């Protein structure tokens, strides 16, 4: 199975910057066998999609509203994202949970809305430092899965990508050790497995200060098969190194 390497640009890159980035990245990843996705701000989706034409780079958004249309000022629907060129959408990122009132309930509704339209969700889960220190990591992850994934059918689950992002590792330079990340992802697969059955074909990504130096080791852990990359996805050369990681022979 290929690795799933997704960049999360967060609130970075104007259209012009995005276009220049893709022009630089395209030749760098032309020979790469992994799945490469850029999750970009709404305003960049169309131009990234166009700039990436003829390449192996897919495009994702960073949020989607759960209603189809209507009086929801500031929100964007699945149809809008699809028409702009998005194939994936990040849902429930910890920054959305922390700063914008995202809950397991809204994650569940957004994921269902995306899947209904054929937009593939990348659903983020992860514990905070306080939760980890209290020994609640498994409890928190179980709740996030049981609640956040509750509207997803077994059939739809094959279009879902899961990202484990310990909140204390995001943008902090503190990566979970490869063993920590792997053990927690093994647990996540167990919980998902109880609900959806076999997860051997499911992408479960690690995210949180993944970079061009630690990616190879993290991605080669048995339960991890991809990465969600913030900071290091903003520099084409760094992102390209991660996109080229291969399984140890
Ligand atoms: P980071 O962000 O790689 O900058 O830690 C990851 C993420 O938030 O998805």
How would you portray this structure in words?
With 249 residues, the protein is α/β, with parallel strands linked by helices. It is built from 11 helices and 8 strands. It has helices at 15-29, 45-51, 78-84, 94-99, 104-117, 129-133, 137-148, 154-157, 178-196, 215-219, 236-243; strands spanning 4-8, 35-39, 57-61, 88-91, 120-125, 161-164, 204-207, 226-229. The radius of gyration is 17 Å and the shape is globular. It binds 2-phosphoglycolic acid (PGA).
Topology:
Elements: E1 4-8, H1 15-29, E2 35-39, H2 45-51, E3 57-61, H3 78-84, E4 88-91, H4 94-99, H5 104-117, E5 120-125, H6 129-133, H7 137-148, H8 154-157, E6 161-164, H9 178-196, E7 204-207, H10 215-219, E8 226-229, H11 236-243
Parallel strand pairs: 1-2, 1-8, 2-3, 3-4, 4-5, 5-6, 6-7, 7-8
The protein binds 2-phosphoglycolic acid.
The largest sheet has its strands arranged as 1-2-3-4-5-6-7-8
Strand content: 5-15%
Q: Using only CA atoms, what is the Rg?
A: 17 Å
**Which class do the helix and strand fractions yield?**
alpha/beta
Shape: globular
The number of helical elements comes to 11
State the end-to-end distance: 13 Å
Q: How confident is the prediction overall: mean pLDDT?
A: 97
Q: Give the ligands present.
A: 2-phosphoglycolic acid
Number of strand segments: 8
The main sheet comes to:
8 strands, parallel, barrel
Low-confidence stretches: none
Order of helices and strands: EHEHEHEHHEHHHEHEHEH
